[in-house]
């Protein structure tokens, strides 16, 4: 063989290897997983609520038109860090260690992205990571400091030597830029998995300047149970601190620093939370912010609102600010979809849109999450998987955030590890409600008490029709002894607890609790009527109790 033919043979084998790699990249789909922070399904127009129709999300809806909308998608523990730990490990909170907001993640657990890397995927996470460990299993990461900031946020990552750098701009836009830049500069011979995690629309709902006031002319309808009196329930629903009218703060949440009471330490603390964001702004950003909020606040002070008029003002401000933040999120989704379309990637990419948990938009009078009641247990979940999922379909099967890792592993052709209890959604995406042998119930467990919003510990099961919840544990500061990290000086859990103690957050003291609630979601979708212990419910109670006991036993749950 002469040297010319050796060269052409070598060239041919290079071409063949590159082709084989490309084929491999094409065989296994790319994954774009978009997760917002606290995005309520009630605020996505594809879900059809009256609220969302007044503030539509055309780009998220575009995704729903292409794929499957899940109407019964749930989290296992309705709080950011635990939810992210479920995503990464495919395990329940007591298995991966992340029960509360701060400490916990067991870094010896395998993160699904590590397995994807081994299977030849290129992996990335941008935006809110939030867990106490460095991102593990990523070729590229560019993540916020802790919760992240709305304005001129700090990021650190593989491209900053892991040092924090401040970037000028609005968070949702910047995080989207980094996500698209990762796709643009990736190695195209490999499939990729991108986790795009926004900070928005987390408290305290800072909208991009161009969207400030965009809903000022819209009067959003209050949920019918805004004035819930919790009459049929146990004490947990009454002792929480997540009421829109009572617990939202004038400075931090409603952005009315004019109401600052300098003699009240709690008020100063919430002023700091507002100023934290304002102080980050450039002079131009700050004056644009003030040009909107200060005249609005002047009008409020002049109006001297009282009673239900004031309640309605608070509710409208909450929803208007929140929805204005969503406008940027929806814009971000549009940019991602357009990018994938223009670059010929749509057909071989699974795109997921979800949130780290649900959120109360005034239902039961609340904001925040944590409870096993529907609005925080349930998340938006929309998945487009071209060629596999029927466009515009809706699925009512029970799915949970421990299912994401098994789903992504299935796409990559990786065998699901035995210690991952979730289920791949691939058969559900293919068959919708007709999927065979699917689960009949889900298990939920919330642990983060005593802390912000004072939601009691509870676990429970939800079937397609019923929900049984068990509230348990000591009350107030007595409960600190039951938490692994709140007793340990130097931990974030300890710092939060001490900070809240110093502003009298734990008074008056909550009682110890140990009781159940039962809801029939078919006849009582708003969970207003606890039927636990009512005549006629004996049989269903027994069934649900048996189901709950089964979870506790098979999953080796160690507290309840
Ligand atoms: C912060 C918020 C709380 C919120 C938690 C958890 N307070 O502590 O309102 O419940 O985060 O949110 S704030 O004063 O800092 O805004 S989560 O999305 O990270 O779980
Ligand atoms: Ca969250």
From TrEMBL:
N-sulphoglucosamine sulphohydrolase C-terminal domain boundaries: 512-553
Keyword tags: Glycoprotein, Hydrolase, Signal
Source species taxonomy: Bacteria, Pseudomonadati, Bacteroidota, Bacteroidia, Bacteroidales
MF (Gene Ontology): hydrolase activity
Provenance organism: Leyella stercorea CAG:629
Domain Sulfatase N-terminal: 29-414
Posttranslational modification: The conversion to 3-oxoalanine (also known as C-formylglycine, FGly), of a serine or cysteine residue in prokaryotes and of a cysteine residue in eukaryotes, is critical for catalytic activity.
Keyword Glycoprotein appears in the UniProt entry: yes
Pfam families according to UniProt: SGSH_C (PF16347), Sulfatase (PF00884)
Entry keyword Signal: yes
Residues carrying 3-oxoalanine (Ser): 80
Family: Belongs to the sulfatase family.
Annotated PANTHER family: N-ACETYLGLUCOSAMINE-6-SULFATASE FAMILY MEMBER (PTHR43108), N-SULPHOGLUCOSAMINE SULPHOHYDROLASE (PTHR43108:SF6)
Entry protein name: Arylsulfatase
Signal peptide region: 1-20
């Amino acid at each position: 063989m002469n040297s010319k033919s050796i060269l052409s043979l070598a060239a041919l084998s290079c071409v063949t290897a590159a082709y084989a790699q490309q084929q491999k990249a094409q065989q296994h789909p790319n994954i774009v997983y978009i997760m917002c922070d606290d995005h309520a399904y009630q605020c996505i127009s594809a879900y059809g609520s009256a609220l969302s129709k007044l503030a539509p999300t055309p780009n998220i809806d575009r995704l729903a038109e292409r794929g499957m909308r899940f109407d019964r998608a749930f989290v296992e523990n309705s709080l950011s860090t635990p939810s992210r730990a479920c995503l990464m490990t495919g395990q329940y909170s007591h298995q991966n260690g992340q029960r509360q907001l701060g400490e916990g993640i067991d870094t010896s657990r395998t993160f699904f992205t590590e397995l994807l890397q081994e299977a030849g995927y290129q992996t990335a996470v941008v935006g809110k990571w939030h867990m106490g460990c460095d991102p593990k299993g990523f070729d590229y990461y560019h993540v916020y400091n802790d919760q992240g900031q709305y304005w001129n946020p700090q990021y650190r990552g593989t491209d900053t030597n892991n040092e924090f750098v401040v970037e000028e701009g609005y968070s949702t836009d910047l995080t989207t830029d980094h996500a698209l830049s990762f796709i643009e500069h990736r190695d195209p011979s490999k499939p990729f998995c991108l986790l795009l995690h926004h900070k928005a629309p987390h408290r305290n709902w800072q909208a991009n300047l161009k969207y400030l006031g965009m809903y000022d002319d819209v009067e959003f309808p209050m949920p019918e149970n805004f004035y819930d009196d919790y009459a049929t329930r146990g004490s947990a629903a009454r002792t929480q601190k997540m009421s829109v009218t009572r617990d939202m703060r004038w400075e931090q949440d409603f952005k009315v620093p004019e109401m600052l009471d300098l003699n009240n330490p709690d008020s100063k603390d919430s002023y700091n939370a507002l100023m934290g964001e304002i102080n980050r702004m450039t002079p131009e950003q700050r004056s644009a912010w003030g040009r909107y909020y200060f005249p609005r606040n002047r009008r409020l002070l002049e109006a001297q609102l009282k009673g239900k008029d004031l309640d309605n003002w608070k509710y409208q401000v909450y929803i208007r600010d929140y929805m204005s933040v969503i406008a940027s999120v929806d814009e971000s989704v549009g940019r991602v979809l357009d990018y994938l379309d223009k670059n010929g990637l749509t057909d071989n990419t699974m795109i997921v849109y979800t949130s780290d948990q649900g959120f109360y938009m005034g239902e039961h009078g609340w904001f925040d999450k944590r409870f096993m009641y529907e609005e925080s247990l349930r998340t938006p979940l929309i998945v487009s998987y071209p060629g596999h999922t029927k466009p515009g379909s809706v699925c009512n099967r029970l799915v949970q955030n421990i299912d994401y890792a098994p789903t992504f592993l299935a796409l990559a052709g990786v065998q699901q590890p035995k210690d991952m209890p979730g289920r791949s959604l691939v058969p559900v995406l293919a068959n919708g409600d007709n999927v065979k042998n699917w689960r009949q119930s889900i298990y939920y467990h919330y642990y983060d008490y005593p802390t912000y919003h004072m939601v009691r510990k509870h676990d429970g099961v939800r079937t397609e029709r019923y929900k049984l919840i068990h509230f348990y544990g000591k009350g107030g500061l007595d409960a600190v002894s039951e938490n692994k990290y709140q007793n340990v000086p130097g931990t974030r859990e300890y710092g939060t607890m001490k900070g809240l103690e110093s502003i009298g957050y734990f008074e008056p003291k909550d009682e110890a609790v140990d009781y159940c609630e039962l809801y029939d979601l078919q006849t009582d979708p708003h969970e207003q009527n606890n039927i636990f212990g009512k005549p006629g419910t004996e049989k269903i109670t027994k069934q649900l109790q048996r189901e709950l006991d089964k979870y506790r036993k098979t999953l080796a749950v160690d507290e309840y």
